[in-house]
Amino acid sequence: MEAAKTTERAENKLGSFVKNQAIWLVFIVLMIAFTIASPNFLTVNNLMIMLRQVAVWGIASVGMMFVILLGEIDLSVGSLITFVNIMCAMLMVDAGMNMWLAVLLTLAVSTGVGLLNGFMVSTLGIPSLIATFATQTAFAGIALLMCGGQPVSGLPEEFGIFGAERIGVVPVPVIIMAVCFAVGSFVLNKTYFGRYFYAVGGNAEAARLSGIRTGRVNYLAFALSGFFAGLAGIVLLSRTNSGMGNAGLGYEFRVITCVVLGGVSVNGGSGKISGVVAGTFIIGALNNGMVLLNINSYVQQIVLGIVLVLAVSFDSLQRKRLERK
Q1: Please, which pLDDT band fits residue 323 given cuts at 50, 70 and 90?
Q2: Predicted structure pTM score
Q3: d(Cα 227, Cα 211) in Å, to the nearest integer?
Q4: What CA–CA distance (Å, rounded) separates 305 from 146?
Q5: I want to staple 184 with a disulfide (CB 3.0 to 4.6 A). Which of 62, 63, 171, 173 is the partner?
């Protein structure tokens, strides 16, 4: 009897481990598959290129995670990245502003846009899908209007520190991404308001009755999303060394995919930053591997769309199973 119980406990622990680490197992399998398919995939140079590419998505996904934990969505991320690209570039090139001051001012504005989204969702009661779609459309137009549809070049050489420099063999954008993931983990696991995101996302009414100011939590989530999107825009601008009116086009899709694929429930209330890290790496490996295999860019879009559908479907099935229990 005791041996049977011990075996059952061991099986439960193994099942729990596989379930919790499944996303990382998928990443490992994907890495092995692309390594077999392309000998150039698992090289130090290519891995550094891949990490540099995913840094922008990873940084923005930290902010997106806070929003999705509440059961909301932020479609304005891509346009905000573009807007930051143009604004920061023009402040330095056209206005001759100091690099650090331009970066701080741009981050303040991007955080303000996040607060605007929070105001529309929390105070005006506009669904986040509509509110952030409106912001996405508006700021895409503002960015193009600011630059006249033309690239903004001539950035200061020292601005490359955010996206083009390395510390040893590690690109600076990767270090910034790692710091952002660490900050996101600290906020969610070590602060009292980090726990509010889970409480409000799990049951907003119960959270309100327990004394949590749900409106403020919404404001904070969207403000953080705006800040991290702005930081991602700064890194992208530094990497490309040119502000472009379509720099963040479609980025919101990849960021949302990274978060949802990482196990953050679209219904809110559950998810871990470690899963988002894995989701980001998987999307990066997929994108990089398909490029190395010379797969058509249209096919790449189809694959990413299928990945997002599968991730959301898995989340929905998990939730239905829990409801039945």
Answers
A1: low
A2: 0.89
A3: 27
A4: 32
A5: 62
Residues near 279 by Cβ (< 8 Å), separated by ≥ 6? 23, 61, 257, 258, 259, 260, 261, 262, 263, 311
**Helix (H) / strand (E) containing 155:** none
| Structure-token match 């700021």, residue found | 139
> What is the residue type of 86?
I
- First-to-last CA distance in the chain? 27
Residues 55, 135: Cα–Cα separation, whole Å: 24
Question: Measuring CA to CA, which residue among 84, 12, 91 is closest to residue 236?
Answer: 84
Amino acid at 52: R
The DSSP element (H or E) to which 125 belongs, if any, is: none
Residue 167: its H or E element: strand 166-167
Phi, psi of 243 (to 5 degrees): -80, 125
For residues 248 and 239, the answer to whether their CB atoms sit within 8 Å is no
Burial, 245: exposed, middle or buried (Cβ in 10 Å; 0-12, 13-18, 19+)? buried
Residue 171 has phi, psi (to 5 degrees) of -65, 145
Cα(64)–Cα(264) distance, integer angstroms? 10
Q: Compute φ and ψ for 98, nearest 5 degrees.
A: -55, 140
pLDDT in tens, 91-133: 999 999 999 999 999 999 999 999 999 999 999 999 999 999 9
